[in-house]
Amino acid sequence: MPLIRLSILPSVAALRDGLSSALFAAGAQGLQEDGDALVTVLDAAHARAHLDAFVEGARSVDPACVVEISELPEVDWSSAWRSRIGAHELGALAIVPPWLAEGRDLSRTVVIDPEMAFGTGEHETTRCVVRLMEGVIRAGDTVADLGAGSAVLAIAAAKLGAARVAAIEFDHDAINNAEQNVAANGVGERVIVLEGDAAVLLPLVAPVRVVLANILSSVITLLLPAIGAAVPAGGAAIFSGILVTERESVLAAIDVAGGWRVVRETQEGEWWAVCVERTAEDGRERRRTAEDGGERRRTAENGGERQRTAEGTAEGTAEGTAD
To answer: What is the pLDDT of residues 281-319, one digit of tens each?
Structure first.
């Protein structure tokens, strides 16, 4: 059934509130502003029964108002939303919805069916991670994707050559969509979807050469110790989901955690992402080294003190003997 759009343009701005009241009194369910005009939408049956009342009510307030009546095209909203989701070319990979996948090289295409889970390629943070992954993921890699959502990044890692990927997601409602996307992309033998807390599950799948974390910056900060323990020297982590305004605080947290070197950064819109490499010595090792060094210094100093005491005792004994 078609919809009828009724637009009322007041002759003077001062009459807008009076027109609004008149339209609601005539039965309008809602109004929106379109420039200076007031707009309401009616179904065809309601329009046939009450359109004259709307117009008369408006002109009783403002006889000089401009009235426009038009029919809106019928829209199948069950499928219209698809027009808002497109294909994203991101270096070696593309992220596309199923209805745009035909004719593409599926070995280089991540096909994601957008449902409740986050991660369709429409968000800047997802695209930032995929851009940074190229050149980081190597053939045969082990990877953990924390906060996997739709499993888009886990699938991308597999298509870049990773041999084993753990897609870890805490949200139960996202699990089914993630598993369906993994199966649809033909990477089920290499990607496993795990439901649970990343802090608990990451140590169980470790060691991994690469960690992907497109999650809140506060969560990344909390997980840094677990990520550091899971990634060996020479491995890497890619962090996203971080606002540009949070860049300095996240870098400071990474520095405090120790054992990471910034390799690359990227930004899209208000979002920032970073790739860091695990160095041979992590923060815990540095602290242990410092503590061991301090202990050795104290031992050496105590030894020196004992030596001086022994020398003093020997001198005193010798003097007593001489007397």
So the answer is: 554 444 444 345 445 445 445 555 544 444 444 444 444
Torsion of CA 88, 90, 94, 95, to 10 degrees: -50
How far apart CA 39 and CA 149 sit, in angstroms, is 39
CATH number of the domain residue 51 falls in: 3.30.70.3400
Is the distance from CB of 129 to CB of 206 less than 8 angstroms? no
Q: Strand pairing of 164-169 and 93-96?
A: unpaired
β-sheet bridge partners, residue 268: 271
Please provide the size of the chain in residues: 323
User: pLDDT tens for residues 92-142?
Assistant: 999 998 888 888 999 999 999 876 546 677 789 999 999 999 989 999 999
Distance, CA of 139 to CA of 145 (rounded, Å): 17
Q: Is 21 helix (H, G, I), strand (E, B) or coil?
A: helix
Give residue for tokens 């409602």.
Answer: 173
What CATH number does residue 144 fall under?
3.40.50.150
